[in-house]
Specification:
43% helix; alpha/beta; six-stranded parallel beta sheet; 421 residues; eight-stranded mixed beta sheet
Length: 421
């Protein structure tokens, strides 16, 4: 088949040669399909990756996969420029798709993926004009997340418009893919399903979580190694966090926990390794210095190519979130969860989640409260347990990762495609 994947921020996947749609494209290509990825000229952080000049798009290829870069404007933060960036992507994606189809032939199916809904709106409109099916992939429940973060109220005029647009997408899509197992609960809460008298057939809803390319992780763990004394000190019990440093990730909680462990005797070998960047990084650096937290190392941004090796050198890996910043009852689709599992190390999550993957595979623990006191207790428990018990939990994680390898996930995606083509 000829398959088009549309994801505003797949430009990061082109740069990193990794990520959901990059791996899907690889796997679909290996199965004999032609795959094209449509994305923005800007990265997630707003930096421009490519310039299209006076043209609406440009085409670059990596590993035999064409990436069509649709012209947008640079945008940092979440202000009006970000809205303009999204709107321009939508506006330019439609003519770009038609021009590309004239040159290369129209696709058999379009898979349009959020984060923002305008990509899915464009995908549905383009597919309708080409008389082909469109599968919409919902990786974040917009606008629910906007309401939860206080950006708008659902009862407001803007809120009602956003919900109406969301419902339109779910109704018009030929199939829906949700990345969290419990996301279809949202449709039931809204009473949108046909079983409840609504107009959305639950049978067209499918669950394909985020996942991991296990072979790539193992290869990078062997070949992309950091020369870092903190990683290579066998006498250290490394508690590792890799990810964005922003309020929803509540990374300051790790510093509070480090302070508790520092005050407790017998845990001088525990050190917190924090890899990542974000708008709270400088604040954390100031805290580490002012509070003399010599058991915390803030490593800053790290190329994701090194992440498998970093995780492999950990004793436990941290999924660190704020319990009240998000609705965790429907599960977790965090990329890092599956990278953590593939590393074969135990996982501590600071939030208790519905449809829990960690509990299902017995590969770690979820806290009932996201407090530093509770986290400190669990770190001490893992520190004090036998190496055999800790290693078994790590093996459970690695075994569970097999179910989320992109070979397995692509089989599921093919089933969804075949249900509409």
């Amino acid at each position: 088949m000829n398959i088009w994947l549309m994801n505003h921020y797949a430009s990061n996947m082109y740069r990193d040669k990794a990520g959901r749609h990059y791996w899907f494209a690889q796997q679909l290509k290996e199965r004999g399909s032609d795959v094209t990825v449509f994305c923005s000229t800007t990265l997630v952080n707003g930096e421009e990756l490519f310039s299209t000049g006076k043209n609406k798009y440009s085409v670059k290829e990596t590993d035999g996969i064409p990436f069509v870069f649709v012209k947008t404007i640079a945008a940092k933060g979440n202000g009006l420029k970000r809205v303009g960036n999204m709107t321009l992507f939508y506006k330019n994606l439609i003519p770009t798709a038609h021009d590309y189809a004239k040159a290369h032939g129209k696709p058999d199916v379009i898979i349009a993926s959020s984060v923002h809904p305008l990509t899915m709106v464009a995908g549905i409109q383009i597919a309708k004009k080409m008389k082909i099916p469109c599968i919409c992939e919902i990786r974040d429940l917009w606008p629910e997340a906007i309401f939860q973060f206080g950006k708008a109220k659902e009862s407001s005029l803007l809120g009602r418009i956003l919900v109406k647009g969301e419902h339109w997408i779910y109704k018009k899509a030929d199939a829906l893919i949700f990345t969290k197992e419990g996301d279809t609960d949202y449709l039931k809460e809204k009473r949108w399903t046909t079983e409840q008298g609504g107009d959305i057939d639950i049978e067209k809803c499918h669950y394909i979580n985020n996942g991991v390319d296990i072979a790539a992780c193992e290869e990078r763990s062997r070949t992309m190694q950091l020369d870092d004394a903190d990683l290579n000190d066998a006498a250290r019990f490394n508690v590792t966090y890799v990810g964005t440093i922003r309020p929803v990730n509540n990374v300051g909680n790790l510093l509070d926990t480090a302070k508790i462990l520092k005050a407790n005797g017998g845990y001088d070998d525990v050190q917190f390794l924090i890899y990542g960047d974000g708008n709270q990084l400088q604040e954390l650096k100031d805290r580490v210095q002012n509070e003399y937290l010599n058991n915390v190392k803030l490593k800053g941004f790290v190329n994701r190519q090194y992440v498998p090796y970093i995780l492999s050198r950990s004793a436990v890996n941290m999924l660190n979130y704020a319990q009240n910043q998000y609705n965790w009852t429907r599960g977790n689709s965090s990329n890092k969860l599956f990278e953590y599992m593939a590393s074969g190390k135990p996982i501590i999550s600071t939030v208790h989640m519905g449809y829990s993957i960690i509990k299902r595979y017995n590969c770690g623990v979820e806290l009932n409260e996201d407090t530093p006191e509770e986290l400190a207790k669990e770190i001490m428990r893992f520190h004090d347990m036998s190496a055999e018990e800790r290693d078994q939990i790590g093996r459970n994680a690695r075994e569970g990762a097999n179910d989320f390898d992109f070979k397995v996930l692509t089989d599921k995606l093919v089933d969804v495609i075949e249900s509409v083509v």
